[in-house]
Structure formats: structure tokens, C-alpha cells
Batch of 2 targets.
Target 1
Amino acid sequence: MSGPRSEARRRGPALDVAVVGGGMVGAAAALALARAGFAVALLEAREPAPWRAGEEVDLRVVGLAPSSVALLDSLDVWTSIRQARAGAYRHMHVWDAQNGAAIDFDAAAEGRDLLGYIVENNLVQWTLWRALEAAGVQRLCPAEVAGFAAREDRIQLDLADGGALAARLLVAADGAGSPLRAMAGIATRGRDYAQRAVVAHVATERPHGETAWQRFLPGGPLALLPLADGRSSIVWSLPEAEAARVLALDDRAFRDELGVASDFRLGRILGTTPRAAFPLRLQLAERYQAERLVLLGDAAHAVHPLAGQGVNLGLRDVAELRDVLVEARAAGRDIAAAHVLRRYARRRHSADTLDARGFDLLARVYAWQSPPLVAARGLGVRLVDGLAPLKRRLIAHAAGEGS
Ligand SMILES: Cc1cc2nc3c(=O)[nH]c(=O)nc-3n(C[C@H](O)[C@H](O)[C@H](O)COP(=O)(O)OP(=O)(O)OC[C@H]3O[C@@H](n4cnc5c(N)ncnc54)[C@H](O)[C@@H]3O)c2cc1C
């Protein structure tokens, strides 16, 4: 065969990677791959809302582990996120409402400056989006994928508006409900926690002390995460009906109930923003790979927020994918060859599964109600709290070291 068609075929598509989903994980993937020298397009269904300093803190915040901060720093976006608004936390205090057993984590005791940062989702997403253009990422928004077909040297995308696109690799970072995962025929496993997380930002009588507080109550954990402005962001996991009731309370009643639920650890709750709630489920994709396609972030794994690790796992997916693709390119291989994608998929699938199952186990153990089991849980927690080397390993794992 000769002529322009065979020439185009030999060269392959102009795009190396099409990333679908421009949330924190997809946007970080697009930027990381573009910075590594790949030709990247990012397709997102909804234009992200701009982040503005003068506006109320976004209701959705995440605890960023040091591994996530390191990735964002390597992409040259961390300094502007930190300078905009990020609350460091240096301590963590977790306690059990039923038996009083507590465990403490302290950065200084481990020779660390901090354990992580509490940051608004839309600040991270917006900062990444602003960096995409300069990095040469082609942004298509609003854009949705209607279907795709893998070919010998490319994956062909049909867009909902009738357009089309071809790339060597399709990266699905389209969230927990991932339409691309469904189109690829990848099943998920897991369970519905039948809980919702009620979130709000609250002003408290006493300072948060740069501490992430978490109290395990019979209905689910209540976390108070330290914001940069001195308030705390709550993530209160509750059974569905309880969450609906708490959402419907007036502010005064909500503050009173929250004070009791938090054991008045930060004193009375003096003020609150409006509340929102998010359904909680454990959902793991059975595999992270299909022909010329990989799953990333919540499209691959959705976990209980009790460990505050969801986006951190997603950003570890990003770092791993970038490293695997860079290595494949250096070896002159097709970046979407099955054996290349398998390396990414295997490593991340086993690491994420281990973490997700670990968080699920914690949720199950803290749901125990029978007195002997509650007492046994207390013994176990006190034991762990006294074991400095184990705590050191837990901190290092949460920080993303060696995972
Ligand atoms: C209450 C709560 C508290 C949490 N706290 C923490 C925490 O402290 N620490 C932590 O690490 N994690 C936390 N998480 C988890 C974290 O928020 C998620 O893991 C993270 O937001 C997932 O990011 P993502 O980019 O993978 O997915 P998403 O943020 O869901 O982004 C997916 C994107 O894909 C787009 N999209 C969807 N379908 C299409 C389509 N067909 N075409 C184009 N675009 C599409 C969507 O518009 C969206 O922008 C928490 C979660 C909850 C619910």
C-alpha cells in the first residue's frame, strides 16, 4: 500500500493520549502526560467552575497526602494551590465513641513537618486546568464520548456532538459512574454502604490545632478536618435516613447535634455553612485495562472517605501511568500495547484493592455493636497506639511512600 492513507497509518494518530474526564485525576493525568512530552487531549462534559479567592470555601475538600503534593509539585501547580488556600494538618486524633479507645498520629514525632493538606476540590481542578493550555493540552469542553473502537494502531472516539477523534490510548478518568468503563464492558465489585456523607464547614469554639479529628460513632465516622481559615470541614457519614434528617435540620439544631456528635472536642459549634451530602460506596473495577484503554481515579476505585484517600489513590494511578508510558516510549514500544498497559493495571489494581479492602475492613470493624466486640476493638486500638513502629508504617503508607 502506498499514498497518503498508508503514510498516515504508519505515523499513527496525531494524538498519543485522549483523557476523558477533567476532574482532579483526569486533569492531573492530562498535565502529567503532556509535561512528559506526549500529545494529549482532555475531554470533559462540564466546564469547571473558576476558583476565586474571595468566594466561600468549596464544600468539597480532600486531604492531600505527601505523595499527591509531590506529584502536583512536579507539575508546577502545588505552589499556587498552597498559596491560594490550603490547610496543613500535623496531627490526627481518632477516637471511638463506644469504648473511648483513641489513636494519635503526630508528624513531629515521626520527624515530619506535616501529615498532609486539606484543599478544596475545585481549587485543585481549576489550577490544573489553567496549566493545561500552556502545556499544549487540547481541551474539548463540553464534550462527551458516545462510543469508541480499538484499531490496530489507534482508538477511534465518536463524540456525542457528531465529532470524532483518534489517539493511541484512551484514559478513562470519568468518575465513579464512568460511562467509558461501562462501554468497555468492565464490571465492578463492592458494596453500597447505605450511608451518605454530610459535609459542611463549621466554626468552632476552640481552634482545630492543625489536627484532623475523627470520631467513630455507631452510625459512622465523623471527621473534622482543619481548614486554612481556622474553621473545620466536616465529613459526617450517616445511615441514609439519618443523613436526610440531619440535612433537614435548621442551623441551630444542626450545630447542637454536631456538638454532641463531636463530643464537644472543639467546644461548641458556633456557625455553619449550608450542607450537602454524598452517597458512599465501595466500588472496584474488576480490571483497569481494556484494548487501548485504561481506567484511572474513581472510574477505577471508589472508597469510603474514612481514610481520606480516594483522590490520593487516583493521583498515584497518574504517577504510575506516566512512568509506565515514558518507559515504553523510551524502549520504542507502542504506548498502548497490551503488555505495557498490563504493567500499569496490575500494579495499581493490586495496590488500590489492598487499600480499598483495608478501608472497608475498618468500616466493618467500627460498625461492630456487640459489647464483647466493642471491647475487643478498644483493646486492639490501644495496642496499635502503643506500637510506635507500626504507627510509623501506617503514616508512611498513608503518605504514599512505597505504594
Ligand atoms: C464526602 C467525600 C469526602 C472525600 N474526602 C476525601 C479526602 O479527604 N481525601 C481524598 O483523597 N479523597 C476524598 N474523597 C474522594 C475524592 O473526592 C474522589 O476520589 C475524587 O474526587 C475523584 O476524582 P476523579 O477525578 O477520579 O473523579 P471525578 O471528580 O468524579 O471527576 C470525573 C469527571 O469526569 C467528567 N465526566 C463524567 N462522565 C463524562 C463523560 N461521559 N464525558 C466527559 N466527561 C465526563 C465529570 O464531569 C467529572 O468532571 C472524598 C469523597 C467524598 C464523597
Target 2
Amino acid sequence: MHTLSELYEVIHRRRDVRGQFTGEPIEPAVLDRVLDAAHAAPSVGLSQPWDFVLVRDDVTRRSFREHVERQRREFAATLDGERADRFDNIKVEGILESTLSIVVTYDPARGAPAVLGRHSIADAGLYSVCLAIQNLWLSATAEDLGVGWVSFFAESFLSELLAIPDGIRPVAWLCVGPVSHLETVPDLERHGWRSRRPLAAAVHHDRWGGARA
Ligand SMILES: Cc1cc2nc3c(=O)[nH]c(=O)nc-3n(C[C@H](O)[C@H](O)[C@H](O)COP(=O)(O)O)c2cc1C
């Protein structure tokens, strides 16, 4: 029972981190455990279609940071008035402040052509990669590390930057490392961008929109 409450505590404590990275080192044994947890994720047809590129090189990280900043400016230009002002205050990455970047990729060819379970839903491979990311995120939280998912990038840019082979897709750039603290409320909610939906609004009974009998 004790373990059960700890599991829920970690799930609810997890945050997307941008501003709280300290840049302190990560113990190699801790990093191994976190990657091992990611690699233990379920995957369609046991394809394990993920890879993890650990990026420590400063020049690479700076180059990616500049690219993200350009993408951020492009998105900002699509906003007007109050939305633009709010977005201005929101930090979308902690690439240089975090200790390590982990790029998680998806290889659709792994286990192909007969990936058991991917016959009807091609995206099931991508779902598998996201589950590995979630395992990584939760175990990092349990290890008192922060994780920030950066998706402000063009896949082609990141593929070239990291020499990712053709056909393999970069899914996420994760900023990982020790943090001063984890916020209790998501950044986007704190900045008035968007609020979380209550669970009751997301649960339907017997059909879409159905109320409990
Ligand atoms: C697929 C995905 C992509 C995301 N991309 C970004 C991003 O580019 N920049 C960012 O600051 N946060 C990004 N986030 C974090 C979300 O903004 C965050 O998860 C959400 O606001 C809820 O906050 P919480 O994770 O702290 O609960 C991403 C999250 C997911 C799941």
C-alpha cells in the first residue's frame, strides 16, 4: 500500500520543467535507472521503436536552442493581443540550463513489415515512443530530476543536427536534470494560458457525452 501511494504521489508531482533547472550533475547510476525505465515501456508488437540520443555537447545544444527560439518567434507572430502578451511571459525550454538533453526517436521500420498490432493503426508505433517518454518522465520525477519536453522544432533540422538516419523521426527533445523545486501548478496554468479540465468532463458513460445512469 505504501508503494501504491508513492506511485500516485510521483504521478501527481511530475511537472514539465523550464525554469527550475540547476545544471548540477546527474549520477550515472540514476541516469541508467531512468533510461532503463524508459526502455521497459510497452510497445506495439514488442517493436521497442525508440532510441535515446544523449546530447551533452554545448555547440549542439546552442544550435538547437537558436532553432527553438526561431520557431517560438514564428508561433508568437501568429498570436494577437492578449494571447501574444501572455505567450511572451512563457518560457518554452530550458535547454542550456538543464544538465542533459535526451532526444527520443521513433523508428517505424523496427520489427517491420509485420508489426503485430500496427496493421490497423499506423500511429501505434508513435504511441509506444510516447509511453517510453512517460516512463522516463515519471522515473526521473521519482529520482528528484526535472524533465521538460521541447517540441518547438522542425524534424528535418533536428535530424540533420544529430545525424539521425533517414526514416527515423525525432519525437522529443527532453531537457533533464536536477531542479531547485517542482511547481505544484503547470506553467501554462500559472501564466493564465490555459487551465486543466476536471476529470468529470473527460469521462463519458456508454457513449460520447453520456451521463452516468
Ligand atoms: C507532446 C508534448 C509536447 C510538449 N512541448 C512543449 C514545448 O515545446 N515547450 C514547453 O515548454 N512545454 C512543452 N510541453 C509541456 C506541456 O506544456 C505541459 O505538459 C502541460 O502544460 C502540462 O503541464 P505539466 O506537464 O507540468 O503537468 C509538451 C508536452 C507534451 C506532452
